[in-house]
Design goal:
Blueprint (H helix, E strand, L loop, with lengths): L1 H19 L27 E8 L9 E11 L3 E12 L2 E15 L3 E17 H5 L14 E3 L3 E12 L2 E11 L3 E2 L6 E2 L4 E8 L1 E2 L4 E12 L2 E13 L3 E8 L3 E10 L3 E10 L8 E10 H21 L1
Antiparallel strand pairs: 1-2, 1-18, 2-3, 3-4, 4-5, 5-6, 5-7, 7-8, 8-11, 9-10, 11-13, 12-13, 13-14, 14-15, 15-16, 16-17, 17-18
């Protein structure tokens, strides 16, 4: 009886998760293109570690929250490697993604084609302890008193980017999984649907030290409403920048950031909707990046200065 009830509850909850399942949204691709497409691994912001925290729907209890950690670097002449960890929570649902990326670049004098392939693991869990610990919920908490985990699954994404001069255009297929998700001690299973993402951007130098980068991103997939995002970033002297975007018809994305010295970069973004009360729909995301190559450069400079001082002495 207990197993039957558990199966029914998970089935109902999993159905809603299937229709909403997607890679968690983020806005830190303005400073970390690797979060936009895996093909950028080893081709931009190399030797940078990025850590971000995002909170969606801050006016709603148990709203989605996401933590991301990523790193990538060039490997040999035309190859790159990267890795990302994503921990996402929506109410009682918790998702963990761990991905490793390999990228390869084909280039001529004026054109480049970047290929990216990521492979990794994903596990979903449902936190029944917190859910049924609510005194306002009538179901006997003794029926389910612990987390229920799905079996670990292999997942992947694949992306291709075309670059000519300052123009970038790319497509990525994500959420590619192998087989069905199965939960422990239940008969429930499901297979999430593949999502796709297309992006294009153009870097336009303006007056001295100013750069404007308009961009467009189109996301879609089965049981996932297609969304068009149009935005632009303006940057001054590679030190300060701001960005503004419209996602869909009603969601505006505003952000700004700065290079705090050679080693640290910080970016903040804020999303709000014009058709929903501001105190209900607010998304905040803070990203901090560390330039590891700058740290090693400082160490090398200090080493040679020490040697030179000792020699002069």
């Amino acid at each position: 009886m207990k197993r039957l009830i558990l199966t029914m509850v998970i089935s109902l909850l999993a159905i809603s998760a299937i229709y909403a399942q997607q890679w968690p949204l983020n806005d830190n691709y303005y400073i970390n293109k690797y979060s936009l497409s895996s093909a950028y691994a080893g081709n931009s912001e190399n030797k940078n570690v990025f850590l971000s925290y995002r909170r969606d729907w801050t006016g709603v209890a148990n709203a989605p929250s996401t933590i991301r950690l990523s790193y990538h670097d060039g490997f040999k002449s035309n190859a790159g490697i990267g890795g990302k960890l994503i921990m996402d929570r929506i109410g009682i649902f918790k998702n963990f993604y761990g991905m490793a990326t390999y990228s390869y670049k084909l280039e001529s004098i004026k054109q480049k084609i970047l290929f990216g392939l990521s492979l990794g693991l994903n596990q979903t869990s449902i936190d029944f302890t917190d859910y049924y610990g609510d005194p306002n919920f009538d179901l006997d908490p003794s029926l389910i008193n612990s987390d229920v985990n799905s079996k670990v699954k292999f997942i992947s994404d694949f992306s291709v980017i075309y670059i000519q001069g300052n123009f970038h255009s790319g497509i990525m297929l994500s959420n590619i999984s192998f087989g069905d998700y199965n939960f422990e001690n239940t008969e429930t299973e499901y297979n999430p649907f593949i999502n796709f993402q297309y992006h294009a951007l153009y870097t336009l130098p303006l007056k001295e030290r100013w750069i404007l980068t308009p961009s467009v991103i189109f996301r879609g997939g089965k049981h996932f409403r297609n969304k068009l995002e149009i935005g632009s970033q303006i940057e001054y002297n590679e030190k300060f920048w701001g960005n503004l975007a419209l996602r869909g018809k009603n969601v505006f994305c505003v952000g700004f950031g700065l290079n705090a010295g050679e080693q640290i970069v910080v970016n903040y973004s804020y999303n709000f909707a014009t058709n929903i009360a501001v105190n209900t729909f607010q998304n905040h995301e803070l990203t901090v990046g560390l330039n590891l190559s700058a740290f090693s450069k400082k160490s090398d400079e200090a080493f040679f200065e020490e040697k030179e001082t000792a020699y002069n002495y």
